C-alpha cells in the first residue's frame, strides 16, 4: 500500500466576490442578493482557514481564481468594442449577464471537479473530471478555465489523468465533488466512491433544480475506471433539495470510514446504507453517523451549514475532526448537537469553528471552499509545487489581496470599467506568487 495524504485544494477567493444572487435554490445567495460584499475580507478569511489547517499538520493546496470578467461570455452574447465599451453596454442592457461574467463562484472548488485517487482506478493514475456545472449560467462558464488550471497543476500524464467536462446538456448535469464522497480505511487503500444524484436523465422535477444526474455520475465513474462493485449511486432526497440542499454536501460529508449525514439526506436511507456496507465489505468497517431530524431541523442544518464542514483526520487526533462554520456554533440546535457528538465517543471527536462568513453569506461553507485530492507522496512531488501552501506563500498571497482587492463591492459596482482592470491586475499578481503566469490572460 502506498502512503497517501488527503490534500485540500482551496479556492482562492477572487477580487470580484459579490452578492449577485444568481444561484437558484441557494437560500443564502438569494437572501443576501444585492448586499455589499467585502472581497478583501473574504479572501483573507479563506487564506486564514488554510493556514489554520496547515497548523494542524495537514497538506494544503490552492486553486487560483478564474479570469473575471469573462469577456468571452460577453462577446458571445453580441457585445463588441473595447473592454470598457463592452462593460458599459452590458451594464445598461444585460446587467444580470454582466453579474454572471463577473461571478467569483469558482472559489467553491468542491464544484471544480470529481476526483478519484490512484488506489481506486484501473490504470493506477489519479483522475480528475472537470464539472460542467451546466445548470447555472454563472457556473457553466467555468469549466474551460478550470480545466486549464488543473492541467497546469497536474501536468504529469503518467500520474494524472484530466478529463474535460461532460456534454453541456441537462442529461449530463454534473456538479463535481459536491455530490461525491470517498470512503476508505486509510487514504492509501482501495475505497468506495459514493455518487449522489438528484434526478435521472430526462426526468423533470418541480421546485428547486436537482443539479446532478445519475447519468453524469455514472459517466464520471466509467471515465475514471472505477470498479462497479466499489461504486455506489444514491439518490438525494427531494425534501432536502426543496429545503435548500442544492448539493449533497449541504446535508452529508464523509471521511475515511465515516459518513456524517442528516436524516433527510437520501431518498432511501436504509437502501443507501446497505449499498455502502456491501461495497465496503472486505475493505473497512463502515461507520454511518445520522443526525436525526428531531435533533436538528433540516432548516437549521442548511442555515448553519452543519454538514458543509470539512471532516478530517488530523495528526495527533485519535478521532475525526469536524471543521464547521461559525454559523454552526451560533445556531442553538447545531451547537448542541455538536456538543453531544463529541461526547458520544463515536468516530468524530472534535469540532473546530472557522470564520468564513463572507463565503457563507453567498452560500458556501468550509466544505464548498475545498477540493479533496488524495495523493501519494510521489504524486504530491509530481504536481505543480507553487500551489502547495506554506506560511510564507500565504503571507505573500495575503499581501496581494490587501493591496489589490476592494473592501467594498456592490453588484452595481461591476458597471465600472476600471474594475475589470483591477481584477486582471489582482489575478496576475496572485498567479505570479503561485508561479502560474501561464494562466494569465
Gist of the model:
With 441 residues, the chain is α/β, with parallel strands linked by helices. The chain is built from 17 helices and 15 strands.
Explain what the structure shows.
By secondary structure, the protein is an alpha/beta fold. It is built from 17 helices and 15 strands. It has a 3-stranded mixed β-sheet. Helix 8 links the parallel strand 7 (191-197) and strand 8 (231-235).
Structural descriptors:
18% strand; alpha/beta; single chain; 441 residues
Q: What ranges have pLDDT less than 50 throughout 5 or more consecutive residues?
A: none
Note the gap between the termini.
42 Å
Largest sheet: 3 strands, mixed
Instruction: Please tell me what the overall shape is.
Output: globular
- Assign the structural class, choosing from mainly alpha, mainly beta, alpha/beta, alpha+beta, or little secondary structure: alpha/beta
Strand order of the largest sheet: 2-1-15
In which range does the helix fraction lie? 25-40%
Amino acid at each position: 500500500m502506498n502512503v497517501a495524504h488527503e490534500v485540500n485544494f482551496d479556492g482562492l477567493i477572487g477580487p470580484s466576490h459579490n452578492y449577485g444572487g444568481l444561484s437558484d435554490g441557494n437560500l443564502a445567495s438569494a437572501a443576501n442578493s444585492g448586499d455589499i460584499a467585502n472581497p478583501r475580507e473574504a479572501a483573507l478569511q479563506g487564506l486564514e482557514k488554510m493556514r489554520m489547517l496547515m497548523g494542524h499538520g495537514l497538506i494544503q493546496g490552492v486553486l487560483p481564481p478564474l479570469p473575471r470578467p469573462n469577456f468571452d461570455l460577453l462577446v458571445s452574447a453580441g457585445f463588441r468594442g473595447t473592454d470598457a465599451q463592452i462593460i458599459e453596454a452590458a451594464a445598461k442592457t444585460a446587467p444580470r449577464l454582466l453579474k454572471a461574467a463577473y461571478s467569483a463562484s469558482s472559489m467553491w472548488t468542491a464544484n471544480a471537479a470529481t476526483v478519484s485517487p490512484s488506489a481506486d482506478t484501473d490504470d493506477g493514475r489519479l483522475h480528475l473530471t472537470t464539472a460542467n456545472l451546466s445548470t447555472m449560467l454563472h457556473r457553466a462558464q467555468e469549466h474551460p478555465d478550470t480545466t486549464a488550471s488543473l492541467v497546469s497543476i497536474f501536468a504529469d500524464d503518467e500520474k494524472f489523468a484530466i478529463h474535460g467536462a461532460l456534454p453541456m446538456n441537462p442529461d449530463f448535469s454534473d456538479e463535481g465533488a459536491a455530490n461525491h464522497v470517498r470512503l476508505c480505511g486509510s487514504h492509501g487503500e482501495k475505497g468506495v466512491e459514493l455518487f449522489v444524484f438528484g434526478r435521472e436523465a430526462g426526468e423533470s422535477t418541480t421546485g428547486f433544480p436537482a443539479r446532478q444526474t445519475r447519468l453524469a455520475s455514472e459517466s464520471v465513474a466509467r471515465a475514471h475506471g472505477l470498479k462497479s462493485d466499489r461504486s455506489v449511486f444514491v439518490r438525494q432526497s427531494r425534501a432536502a433539495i426543496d429545503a435548500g440542499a442544492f448539493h449533497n454536501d449541504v446535508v452529508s460529508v464523509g471521511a475515511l470510514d465515516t459518513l456524517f449525514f442528516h436524516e433527510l439526506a437520501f431518498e432511501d436511507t436504509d437502501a443507501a446504507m446497505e449499498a455502502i456496507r456491501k461495497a465496503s465489505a472486505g475493505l473497512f468497517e463502515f461507520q454511518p453517523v445520522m443526525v436525526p431530524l428531531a435533533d436538528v431541523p433540516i432548516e437549521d442544518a442548511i442555515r448553519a451549514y452543519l454538514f458543509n464542514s470539512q471532516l478530517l483526520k488530523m495528526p495527533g487526533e485519535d478521532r475525526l475532526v469536524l471543521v464547521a462554520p461559525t454559523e454552526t456554533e451560533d445556531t442553538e440546535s447545531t451547537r448542541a448537537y455538536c456538543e453531544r457528538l463529541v461526547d458520544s465517543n463515536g468516530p468524530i471527536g472534535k469540532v473546530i469553528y472557522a470564520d468564513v462568513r463572507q463565503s457563507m453569506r453567498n452560500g458556501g461553507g468550509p466544505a464548498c471552499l475545498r477540493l479533496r485530492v488524495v495523493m501519494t507522496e510521489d504524486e504530491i512531488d509530481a504536481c505543480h509545487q507553487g500551489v502547495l501552501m506554506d506560511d510564507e506563500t500565504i503571507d505573500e498571497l495575503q499581501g496581494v489581496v490587501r493591496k489589490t482587492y476592494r473592501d467594498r463591492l456592490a453588484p452595481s459596482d461591476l458597471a465600472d470599467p476600471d474594475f475589470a482592470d483591477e481584477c486582471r491586475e489582482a489575478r496576475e499578481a496572485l498567479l505570479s506568487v503561485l508561479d502560474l503566469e501561464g494562466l494569465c490572460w
